[in-house]
Design goal:
Layout: H1 4-14, H2 16-27, H3 39-51, E1 56-60, E2 66-72, E3 83-89, E4 110-111, E5 114-116, H4 120-140, E6 147-153, H5 164-169, E7 177-180, E8 190-193, E9 195-204, H6 220-231, H7 243-259, H8 263-266, E10 274-282, E11 292-301, H9 307-320, E12 328-334, E13 337-338, H10 344-357, E14 364-366, H11 372-377, E15 382-384, E16 399-401, H12 402-420
Parallel strand pairs: 3-6, 3-7, 7-15, 8-14
Antiparallel strand pairs: 1-2, 2-6, 4-5, 5-16, 8-13, 9-11, 9-12, 10-11
Helix pairs in contact: 1-12, 2-4, 4-12, 6-9, 10-12
Family: Belongs to the peptidase M20A family.
Pathway: Amino-acid biosynthesis; L-lysine biosynthesis via DAP pathway; LL-2,6-diaminopimelate from (S)-tetrahydrodipicolinate (succinylase route): step 3/3
Domain Peptidase M20 dimerisation: 191-321
């Protein structure tokens, strides 16, 4: 009988240069979001998959944002009845000030064991791994018992409303499990995230000549500063952690303490509401008392707290500070969510990491949010695993280690074989 596992892993080892070249090619498309134009990179991916015998359905959310669905398989009548979704996004955050990069952010060069460029870690190296593996399984003719679908979306970095949720809400893809190639630790896939509560409030003031402040006029900026200080108390919201997640939170806290930068203090965010004052927009001119100031806040919500309660508490804190303002939620809104270790896709991927790396692996939570929450909303078990130099994500000089890119591709392949199963065939 054909040993498909060995055959696939040997092919990845033999074709490492092809995998890495695909990574480089994806980075060379400057798919920054905003503006979020995915047409050129999508056309490249469609052609790449077509060469492997895989057709792609294109679902435009806008004229420039294209969602791609490519399926390897014959449909829901396959023996396993399973459909595994490999998911990734083509958009990247803007490169920013090019003078602060040590290299061209869209070069895709490989230097000293690293893939260089914007999106290397978040998440074009992981996306390339998913695409490469799907194409490889097609070229080798691996007789999967279920469907393997690629879902490639154009909109994740600005909230993702035109990507994964747009596709799932319209029933354009179905799945029994999903793997997202978002950056993670090499031995620690992400199986859950904190919730999110983004909100803003606007403070009104009375304008006047700057030379007479503070005796004339009422500065909206000064009033907003009092509100900012009051909102720091969101951290003190009482958190009642549900019993079913206490152990995974403990595991995640220990992981962060041991392995993450600033882990000796960062572990605390798993059981607290965090508060980041993201933007402040106020005033019209330096010598005019500000008549208006708008604050935008990014708050992340732990298990045991509802994001709507965070909004209510924010309103109360502002009132206590003497600020009567409407608190408006926007962007990321949702509660903490996770996929149990007992789900087959989780155990299969963790087992695959152990096989490929020869080391112990286990899932952890992350303090950020991602497209994973949308899959869970549609009752699709999901986890995240991808290559990354975590400290460079959304930073200048973004890069990803080559060895992780290769390891992740092998893990994606093994996970597909394990989860979907393979028909017995003769050599």
């Amino acid at each position: 009988m054909t040993d498909w596992k060995s055959k696939v892993l040997e092919a990845i080892d033999a074709e490492q240069d092809k995998l890495l070249e695909l990574c480089s090619q994806l980075i060379r498309f400057p798919s920054e979001n905003p503006p979020g134009d995915s047409r050129e990179i999508s056309a490249f991916i469609i052609d790449y998959l077509k060469e492997a015998g895989i057709d792609t359905r294109v679902h435009p959310a806008t004229d420039t944002m294209l969602n791609l669905v490519s399926t390897l398989g014959t449909g829901s009548e396959l023996p396993s009845g399973k459909n595994l979704i490999f998911c990734g996004h083509t958009d990247v955050v803007p490169a920013g000030d090019r003078s602060r990069w040590d290299f061209d952010p869209f070069s895709g060069d490989i230097v000293d064991g690293y893939l260089l460029g914007r999106g290397a870690s978040d998440m074009k190296a992981g996306l390339a791994g998913l695409i490469y593996v799907t194409a490889l399984l097609s070229k080798l003719g691996v007789p999967l018992k279920g469907d393997l679908s690629l879902l490639i979306v154009p909109d994740e970095e600005t909230g993702g409303h035109l990507g994964v949720p747009w596709v799932l809400e319209r029933g354009l893809i179905t799945g029994t499990a999903a793997v997202i190639a978002e950056p993670s630790g090499p031995l620690n896939p992400t199986i859950g995230q904190k919730g999110s509560c983004w909100f803003e409030f606007t403070v009104e003031g009375t304008p006047g000549h700057g030379s007479l402040s503070p005796v004339v006029g009422d500065s909206a900026i000064v009033k907003a500063a009092k509100g900012i200080e009051a909102l720091q108390r969101l951290w003190d919201i009482k958190v009642d952690i549900p019993d079913e997640v206490k152990e995974i939170i403990r595991i995640s806290q220990d992981y962060v303490k041991e392995r993450e930068q600033d882990g000796s203090i960062a572990y605390q965010v798993f059981d607290h509401v965090t508060v980041n004052i993201g933007t402040i927009q106020g005033g019209t001119k330096v010598n005019v008392v500000a008549d208006r100031c708008t604050i935008q806040v990014d708050s992340r919500v732990p298990f045991g707290v509802d994001y709507r309660d965070v909004l209510d508490r924010a309103r109360s804190l502002l009132l206590e500070a003497g600020i009567e303002s409407e608190v408006k939620g926007f962007g990321f809104q949702g509660n903490a969510n996770w996929t149990s270790n007992e789900e087959p896709v989780v155990s299969d991927l963790v087992e695959s990491i152990c096989e490929v790396s020869g080391e112990e692996a286990y899932g952890v939570l992350q303090w950020a949010s991602s497209d994973a929450r949308h899959f869970r909303t549609h009752n699709i078990p999901v986890l995240q695993y991808g290559p990354a130099e975590l400290s460079t994500i959304h930073n200048f000089n973004e890069k990803a280690p080559v060895w992780q890119i290769i390891q992740c591709a092998k893990v994606y392949a093994l996970t597909a074989l394990k989860y979907l199963g393979v028909e017995d065939t003769e050599n």
